[in-house]
């Protein structure tokens, strides 16, 4: 490239760091009328910029001086971030671009970025060192496993028998997976050596797997139980052929009795910050099912992108699904010199839902409101913007125009219209409405909001937020849906105790919600966020705004281990969820690296009884599971 951008730490204190930014013109041409755009992971103090002007929109910084940048010369700029010191290379410049104006128009020119110079030494990256695999490597650890003598040979005539409609979805999944694994077609027939048998005496989600010399029996009472039984059988398949002939595979003879610890076992995927194609989503869902998760939480909307087709408002995907240097939504994070985006059509979403259902997974849609709504607001300003609102605020992601206005009639029209289509599209009995990170200062100078507060006697912005969320909860209830929300959904004390709260900031907030009468799903960032770095080296991919989350730390997460929670209070914990936020995840390789192998650790935390979890034993079983990931070519952290 003809341009390069370097970032160096020149001074750091516990609460503020100063940086030097150097832009090199490596070409033989002087440039006039230019702007430098670059993505920064944290807020730049406007008063700290040494010269020129710098404007920040989200992660996008726009800098200009009005001066030329001559050939083989450089620009030097200093600024400060009012946060803790950086410790990761990923906290540096994500991407950069020059916008150069000529008589032919504005041209976006990519700029090479180099790793940030942190000015300090950091530890070397530690490799993943595991013991030899066990003979049987089931993850999560089942409730009871008895290994018997012998093996059941998977001969060329192997077939699957499904004895009820309830077991047919899982049977189709098993047939598909075995066909791919054995590289020959495995079909469902009236009689087969692998039988799925309904046993009404088993509780929901419970299952039994019996492998004998003659065949395999999977027993369950409902669809979920059959899916879990199939997942166990799939993990019993050998990664490599056990005999000389490639097609001579066999299953070990075992008896498995199993059931989950928690009813809700989920993973959230952020598809708004970076768009993930349907194939990537379905591959993830397949892995979630294999490790016995039962909910896929789909984060479909945020400031940086709207990813779901809404028939009533085509602008949401025509405008809100795309960002770039010449789009209504400015570029963010990566790809600053070109367009990034995409959305899921309703048919594609139906396909994902059906694919997940066959594997025992419920797809939970999230429409994040009232904050994190910039893509929607930019798409529908005539409906969602109050011209007289002069409120000044800055969200945690550095936006000043990303919050819906509870005082506008258009806001309620928009929400009811969107939620109606979402309810019609998703069969799940619940909808997640976000509710997180609404900043201080919002709505203060909105005439519409001030009038609403006066009418209802509200005191602050949390009352307004609660007012809007309670409206959504009441509307969803008319559609037969239960509302889910992040822990901030309780602000203003307006939503009912029927709303399930997802606790993410820390466990204490979960305890507080439980003691206030709410059921909770625990998703603490310090243990379950897969966007956190997995190691303490500066070159490890990820971030650490919560903390580093190595594999061992993820595995040892135990809900309320350090809290005095009663048995009754613990009963209000409906489950555990991990999450991958994708501000920095924009490729298949990085996607897989951030998820694996920590997903397997969280799977065992969600499923296996506390007294059955053993770190040393898990490492050996993980060693065996990594052979399966190798077979698929998954880029896990090694």
TrEMBL record:
<keyword id="KW-0378">Hydrolase</keyword>
<dbReference type="InterPro" id="IPR017853">
    <property type="entry name" value="GH"/>
</dbReference>
<keyword id="KW-0326">Glycosidase</keyword>
<feature type="domain" description="Glycoside hydrolase family 20 catalytic">
    <location>
        <begin position="262"/>
        <end position="609"/>
    </location>
</feature>
<dbReference type="GO" id="GO:0030203">
    <property type="term" value="P:glycosaminoglycan metabolic process"/>
</dbReference>
<dbReference type="Pfam" id="PF02838">
    <property type="entry name" value="Glyco_hydro_20b"/>
</dbReference>
<dbReference type="Pfam" id="PF00728">
    <property type="entry name" value="Glyco_hydro_20"/>
</dbReference>
<dbReference type="InterPro" id="IPR025705">
    <property type="entry name" value="Beta_hexosaminidase_sua/sub"/>
</dbReference>
<feature type="active site" description="Proton donor">
    <location>
        <position position="437"/>
    </location>
</feature>
<dbReference type="InterPro" id="IPR015883">
    <property type="entry name" value="Glyco_hydro_20_cat"/>
</dbReference>
<dbReference type="GO" id="GO:0005975">
    <property type="term" value="P:carbohydrate metabolic process"/>
</dbReference>
<dbReference type="GO" id="GO:0004563">
    <property type="term" value="F:beta-N-acetylhexosaminidase activity"/>
</dbReference>
<comment type="similarity">
    <text>Belongs to the glycosyl hydrolase 20 family.</text>
</comment>
<feature type="domain" description="Beta-hexosaminidase bacterial type N-terminal">
    <location>
        <begin position="136"/>
        <end position="259"/>
    </location>
</feature>
<dbReference type="InterPro" id="IPR029018">
    <property type="entry name" value="Hex-like_dom2"/>
</dbReference>
<dbReference type="GO" id="GO:0016020">
    <property type="term" value="C:membrane"/>
</dbReference>
<dbReference type="InterPro" id="IPR015882">
    <property type="entry name" value="HEX_bac_N"/>
</dbReference>
<protein>
    <recommendedName>
        <fullName>beta-N-acetylhexosaminidase</fullName>
        <ecNumber>3.2.1.52</ecNumber>
    </recommendedName>
</protein>
């Amino acid at each position: 490239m003809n341009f390069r951008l370097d970032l160096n730490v020149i001074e750091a204190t516990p609460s503020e760091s100063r940086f030097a930014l150097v832009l090199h013109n490596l070409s033989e041409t002087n440039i006039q009328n230019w702007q430098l755009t670059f993505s920064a992971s944290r807020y730049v103090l406007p008063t700290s910029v040494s010269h020129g002007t710098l404007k920040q929109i989200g992660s996008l910084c726009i800098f200009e001086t009005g001066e030329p940048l001559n050939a083989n010369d450089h620009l030097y700029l200093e600024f400060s971030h009012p946060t803790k010191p950086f410790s990761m290379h990923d906290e540096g410049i994500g991407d950069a671009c020059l916008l150069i104006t000529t008589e032919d128009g504005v041209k976006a020119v990519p700029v090479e970025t180099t790793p940030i110079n942190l000015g300090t030494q950091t530890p070397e990256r530690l490799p993943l060192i595991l013991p030899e695999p066990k003979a049987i490597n089931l993850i999560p650890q089942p409730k009871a496993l008895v290994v018997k003598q012998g093996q059941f040979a998977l001969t060329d005539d192997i077939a699957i028998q499904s004895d009820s409609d309830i077991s047919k979805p899982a049977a189709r999944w098993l047939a598909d997976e075995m066909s791919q694994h054995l590289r020959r077609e495995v079909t469902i027939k009236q009689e087969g050596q692998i039988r799925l048998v309904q046993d009404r005496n088993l509780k929901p989600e419970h299952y039994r797997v019996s492998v004998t010399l003659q065949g395999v029996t999977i027993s369950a009472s409902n669809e979920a139980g059959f899916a879990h039984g199939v997942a166990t059988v799939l993990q019993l398949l050998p990664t490599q052929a056990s005999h000389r002939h490639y097609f001579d595979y066999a299953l070990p003879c075992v008896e498995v009795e199993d059931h989950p610890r928690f009813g809700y076992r989920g993973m959230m995927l952020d598809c708004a910050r970076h768009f993930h194609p349907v194939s990537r989503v379905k591959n993830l869902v397949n892995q979630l099912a294999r490790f016995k998760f039962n909910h896929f939480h789909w984060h479909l909307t945020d400031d940086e992108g709207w990813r779901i087709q809404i028939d009533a408002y085509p602008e949401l995907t025509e405008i809100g699904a795309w960002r770039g240097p010449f789009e209504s939504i400015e570029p963010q994070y990566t790809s600053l010199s070109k367009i990034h985006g995409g959305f899921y059509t309703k048919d594609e979403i139906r396909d994902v839902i059906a694919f997940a259902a066959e594997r025992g997974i419920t797809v939970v849609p999230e429409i994040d409101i009232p904050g994190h709504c910039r893509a929607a607001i930019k798409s529908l300003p005539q409906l969602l913007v109050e011209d007289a609102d002069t409120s000044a605020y800055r969200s945690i992601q550095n936006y000043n125009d990303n919050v819906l206005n509870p005082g506008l009639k258009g806001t309620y029209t928009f929400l009811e219209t969107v939620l109606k289509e979402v309810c019609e599209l998703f069969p799940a009995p619940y909808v997640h409405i976000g509710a997180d990170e609404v900043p201080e200062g919002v709505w203060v100078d909105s005439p519409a909001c001030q009038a609403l507060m006066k009418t209802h006697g509200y005191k602050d912005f949390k009352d307004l937020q609660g007012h809007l969320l309670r409206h959504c909860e009441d509307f969803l209830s008319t559609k037969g849906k239960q509302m889910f929300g992040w822990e901030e959904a309780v602000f203003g004390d307006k939503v009912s105790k029927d709303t399930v709260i997802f606790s993410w900031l820390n466990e204490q907030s979960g305890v507080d919600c439980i003691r206030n009468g709410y059921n909770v799903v625990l998703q603490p960032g310090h243990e379950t966020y897969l966007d956190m770095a997995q190691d303490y080296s500066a070159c490890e991919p990820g971030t650490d705004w919560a903390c580093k989350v190595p594999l061992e730390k993820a595995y040892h997460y135990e809900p309320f281990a350090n809290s005095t929670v009663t048995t009754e209070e613990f009963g209000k914990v409906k489950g555990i969820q991990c999450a991958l936020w994708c501000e920095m995840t924009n490729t298949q390789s990085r996607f897989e690296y951030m998820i694996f192998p920590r997903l397997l650790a969280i799977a065992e935390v969600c499923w296996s009884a506390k007294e059955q979890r053993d770190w040393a034993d898990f490492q050996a079983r993980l060693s065996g599971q990594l052979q399966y990931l190798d077979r698929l070519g998954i880029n896990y952290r090694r």
